[in-house]
Amino acid sequence: MKYIVTADEMRKCDQNTTDFLKIPAMVLMERAALSVLKHIRAHFAHKEPRDVTALIFCGVGNNGGDGLALARLMADAGYPVEVCILGDKTRSSVGWKNQYDILQHYNIKIRTNLPEGEYNILIDALLGVGISRAISGAFEQAITWFNSHQGYKLAIDIPSGIHTDTGAVLHCAVKADTTVTFGFLKRGLILAPGCVHAGRVICEDIGIREKSFLGKKPGMFTYDETMAQLLPTRNPLGNKGTFGKVVMIAGSDKMIGAAALCAKACYRSGAGMVKILSHPDNRGPLAMLVPEALFGTHEELKDSLGWADVIVFGPGCGQRKEMCECLWYCLKGSDLPLIIDADGINILSAQKEFLEVLQEQGNGGRTLILTPHMGELSRLTGTEVSALKNAMPGAVKYWASQWNCTLVAKDAITFTGNANHSICTSFKYNSGMATAGSGDVLTGIIAGLTAQGLCGFEAASKGVAIHALAGELAAESRGVHGCMASDIADAVGSIL
After folding, report:
1. What is the model's pLDDT at position 496?
2. Same domain, 294 and 440
3. CA dihedral defined by 72, 77, 79, 83, rounded to 10 degrees?
4. Residue 161 to residue 139: CA distance in whole angstroms
5. Residues 69 and 166 both lie in one domain
């Protein structure tokens, strides 16, 4: 996994690296500059260094110190480079002062005013992760100049003007083609709109490692393992019962696609058996779409729960009285892991006593997974969508704790929360995944992983990661315009 840190978590990690691990700050600064130089060389590999003009904007903190070190290294490598310094030098950091003193021995033009010329590459080393107030004055002017001029644009650590913890634009912010960050991803690089300003994000190892947390892990992570590493171990001598039985209350007399997609994805993710309980008219169509699945009607719910290992409730099932009664029985009449999606979420929103029972069940240790998109989460919490988005991922952690469940808040950037775990996020997303049925595929994947024995949080968070990778593969094959949910479900099998 990869940790994603706040500004405070990163500061403590930096400090622990120098104070406890005894790696000098100047060594880290030098490594940071070298890693940026590596990417500059790769980007301009088709040109001679002498033909690549560079301008580096430097503040007077450690981020600016990285920029000064980079200027020296670029000059040594033959790049024509200039430095533009903004800020009060008398308030500079120790690292910045050391790099500035070294730079005096190099024939590098240092300016304090904005130039009039053009450059092949513009480098942002103005503010770094510490900024939390609105940008103004000379820094605002420099960022405006930076964004309005041509050239390849690279930000060091985080684009200046982006809030490290929230991704918010602090009045104005650098718009980079590439951001080279160090040690760990920062939240502002993956949260909107910071992720847009960051461009392509490259995280470099400069010697700040997980041990620098001194046992206090950050509050957010993402998966970077291969799918083979994330999946549960499969018994080579197992049978269809070994890998779990899933019952799905899904589909209605006017909707069968959600049930079919969910069941197909559940099989693709490794479940042994799937039984769909739906409207009687759906038996024939579902048999054609997913011939592997068993079929039953809602009257068979009690017996089916006795057969199953996992319950899925909601995809395409509607909210009529019969469905409310089925969900009530799933809550009160069973202690099996329960995944609630789509119309199941809407029933919880409309029937508050259902939500109270869910809280009681979760408090008793039952595995409960809710998978709302932003609109459904808004109805469930009574909070405006915009307010939820502005408060992510804290809102996910809060409501997951309130409801004693694992909560998957689906959006372009999806967050999975649970009271006992760090927040997991997946930001591998493409617009091809914004298609009807994509959420049903995700629910099926999570159900398949739960059936194979993963705990609720693992099944949900790893399911989101698998779903994202499948979406990437489907988009590569079909293109983002032509990608459909069935392509994502099929890609799950390819990924696994």
Report:
1. 54
2. yes
3. -10
4. 9
5. yes
Tell me, what CATH number does 290's domain have? 3.40.1190.20
388 with 254, same domain: the answer is yes
Nearest to 147 by CA among 124, 170, 125: 124
The predicted structure's pLDDT at residue 390 = 87
Pair 76, 165 in one domain = yes
Evaluate if residue 227 carries a pLDDT over 70.
no
Task: Tell whether the model's pLDDT for residue 493 goes beyond 90.
Answer: no
pLDDT for 85-105, tens place per residue?
999 999 999 999 999 999 999
**Domain CATH number, residue 69:** 3.40.50.10260
H or E stretch covering 2: strand 2-5
Return the percentage of the chain with pLDDT > 90, whole number: 90
Q: How far is CA 98 from the centre of its chain?
A: 37
Tell me the CB-side half-sphere exposure of residue 314, using CA atoms within 13 A. Answer: 29
User: CB of 461 within 8 A of CB of 371?
Assistant: no
Q: Does position 405 have pLDDT exceeding 80, yes or no?
A: yes
Written as six digits, the tokens of 56 are 């580096």
167 Cβ contact list (under 8 Å, min separation 6)? 187, 188, 189, 190, 191, 192, 193, 194, 195
Alpha-carbon distance 287 to 131, whole Å? Answer: 58
CA angle 290, 291, 297 (to 5 degrees): 80
Domain-ending residue, one of 218, 238, 268: 218
With vertex at residue 263, the alpha carbon angle to CA 359 and CA 321, rounded to the nearest 5 degrees, is: 50
- For the record, the structure tokens of 233 come out as 């171990």
Whether this model's pTM surpasses 0.70? yes
| Number of domains comprising the chain | 2
